[in-house]
Write a structure and sequence with these properties.
Layout (H helix, E strand, L loop, with lengths): L7 H18 L1 H5 L2 H9 L1 H13 L2 H5 L3 E3 H8 L3 H13 L4 E4 L2 E3 L16 H7 L2 H9 L1 H7 L3 H6 L3 H7 L1 H12 L2 H4 L14 E5 L5 H9 L4 E6 L1 H10 L6 H4 L2 E5 L14 E6 L7 H15 L5 E6 L9 H13 L7 H10 L2 E8 L5 E7 L1
Parallel strand pairs: 4-5, 4-7, 5-6, 7-8
Antiparallel strand pairs: 1-3, 2-3, 8-10, 9-10
Length: 372
């Protein structure tokens, strides 16, 4: 197999910058008096909820490129002017929006990422993480789940997260859009850190609308792709892309619906690459084993390769971002962010071996594997 990693210098620089960013984030922990630091952490949800309400009210969209008084905004959106002022004032004090004169505000470089006309906006991620569906399990049943090992989401809603999504279209759509916006956090540069060109076809399992697959196809004109996801997601994808992607690129991608726990698209050659981005961290080992068994069946007698794009947690001194994602997995699923030894054990038990664990320019890693 040819070398899979590309851009090693850029990847190394990215990881060094991330290390610096994590160190800077830890400064308040080191310099703030401990009782005050605990109080800060204990009240961070105030800021989160204020940001959620501002996002839901579309305040950044209303401000647009200009300045507006709270009276103008309140009149346009039918809000209580004084309460609106206090909300905007709080957010401006932490760097979201800018107060240019008493009761006059404008967007700043940070709040610009709340605007719907910004292609790099993260508003759906904020709306999803702060939705009642995602916050009530944190508030209502985390303590009970820490005691008994249950899933907080299932305790609140009586079903697991993905079963709930199947029955609630609006939340399912919000979740899907939020996952599509993840790339706005770090961009798609990480896709440039892998040698996709040595394969003939990628099968993007759980690939949502196919944005990552299409980004790859644009750079590799000889590559084809299959995007596999739940029926409602694939149905939306088929109508989403025709007027947004060049016809010659779109002609090289197929959309196929199905169930991860059923049959997967089958391999057609040794040069097929099965891709699973951010799938396994939301699943238990038992659920992962079912999918791995399905992968084995789909690969058949071919020597296809599997690429898992997922976090690899440190064995000790875990990265705060990875630790936060791990807690979110605990809240909603039976999954977790696995250490490298846990990945190795999971794959070995299912008859796979890890060929390489690659650093790329995102918080996840690329885990390359093949059947043994």
């Amino acid at each position: 197999m040819k070398k899979l990693a590309t851009n090693p210098f850029k990847v190394k620089l990215f990881n060094q910058l991330m290390s610096v960013a994590n160190a800077l984030q830890n400064i308040p922990t080191k310099i703030t008096p401990r009782p005050f630091r605990l109080m800060q952490i204990g009240s961070l949800f105030w800021q989160s909820r204020a940001l959620y309400v501002a996002t839901k009210l579309e305040l950044a969209d209303t401000l647009g490129d200009g300045e507006k008084s709270t009276l103008e905004i309140a009149t346009a959106l039918q809000l209580h002017e004084n309460h609106l002022y206090r909300l905007l004032r709080m957010l401006a004090s932490i760097g979201i929006f800018e107060e240019t004169a008493p009761r006059v505000f404008k967007n700043c470089k940070t709040s610009a990422f709340l605007r719907q006309d910004n292609p790099k906006n993260v508003r759906t991620m904020i709306l999803m993480h702060n939705s009642p569906e995602m916050t009530e399990p944190w508030m209502e049943s985390l303590e009970d789940s820490i005691r008994d090992g249950g899933v907080p989401f299932a305790k609140v809603y009586g079903v697991e997260l993905f079963d709930y999504m199947d029955a609630h279209h609006d939340f399912d759509l919000l979740f899907s859009e939020a996952m599509d916006s993840v790339e706005n956090l770090t961009g798609n540069l990480f896709l440039q850190d892998f040698n996709w060109g040595q394969f003939e076809r990628i099968i993007d399992v759980g690939g949502s609308k196919g944005s990552k697959a299409l980004s790859i196809l644009k750079s590799y004109p000889n590559l084809k792709a299959v995007v596999f996801d739940r029926p409602q997601i694939i149905e939306a994808a088929k109508t989403y892309w025709p007027d947004k992607i060049a016809a010659d690129v779109l002609a090289r991608i197929d959309f196929e619906d199905g169930n991860l726990f059923g049959s997967l698209p089958v391999a057609q050659s040794d040069n097929d690459l099965f891709v699973l981005f951010a799938i396994f961290h939301g699943l238990s080992d038992e659920q992962c084993s079912i999918i791995l068994s399905n992968l084995k069946s789909a690969i058949g007698h071919y020597k296809a390769t599997i690429l898992f794009g997922d976090a690899v947690a440190e064995e000790i001194y875990i990265n705060p971002t990875v630790a936060s994602f791990d807690m979110q997995m605990l809240i909603g699923t039976k999954g977790r962010e696995r250490t490298q030894s846990e990945w190795e054990q999971l794959l070995e038990n299912a008859g796979f071996e890890i060929l390489e664990v690659m650093n790329v320019r995102t918080f996840a890693k690329f885990i390359v594997a093949k059947p043994t």
